[in-house]
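Reopening this one. Same input as before:
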Amino acid sequence: MAAADPIISIKGLVTRLGNRLIHDRVDLDVRRGEVIAIVGGSGSGKSVLLRSIVGLMRPAGGTVEVFGEDVLNLEPGALRGIQKRWGVLFQEGALFSSQTVAENVQVPLREYTKAPQALMNEITAVKLAMVGLGEDAARKYPSELSGGMKKRASLARALVLDPEIVFLDEPTAGLDPIAANAFDELIRNLQQSLGLTVFMVTHDLDTLRSIADRVAVLVNKKLKVGTIAEVMRDQDPWIQDYFSGPRGRAALGS
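Same output, byte for byte:
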């Protein structure tokens, strides 16, 4: 794939939940190395879009290419090779409650590699330090962690295979403003230092202002994509209410 080619390319995506149409021929190209934020109203299909890309939901139509490969039609072995190149932070963290933080972080290593335990322990320590968690956190269970620590542990798991793309589903949901701001800074710092492409579902206007290079807004089953300034020029009522209402003006400093 040439450097200028999109790292993710979605064409004509159609998704349904039962008889309900969620996305109606959606197109989106994600550039390598950018932070793109998917926003939209409740039930607009933000998380469904993410799940369709990573293979957790089968769309009714269209194509999804990642790294130039049609991920909807790959053989299982080839798909596993692609999946090793991305990491996912699920909403609420999705940590396994019966496993320690270290064991949670090591799940992808066990799934995709044959690394010995000693090496997995070393990798885990590095990834936890990378997200701001110490050795003491490795031995704890998810129930012993704060909301912010759970997010960081889940991010460490998403990064454990050194992915090129990280998918984040509502990464700051449930965090207080201080913890959310710290997590935004962590994401931006990791994105820049590791050269990550970040595909992020969010409703957090502060996150958009802080770290998003572009925004893709889901309205009326379609995507409208651009910088925040470009999207705000759209006269769609939902977009105007979201970005130009009191909360939007405060978050965006206008």
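So the earlier flakiness isn't reproducible anymore. For the record, The mean pLDDT is 90.
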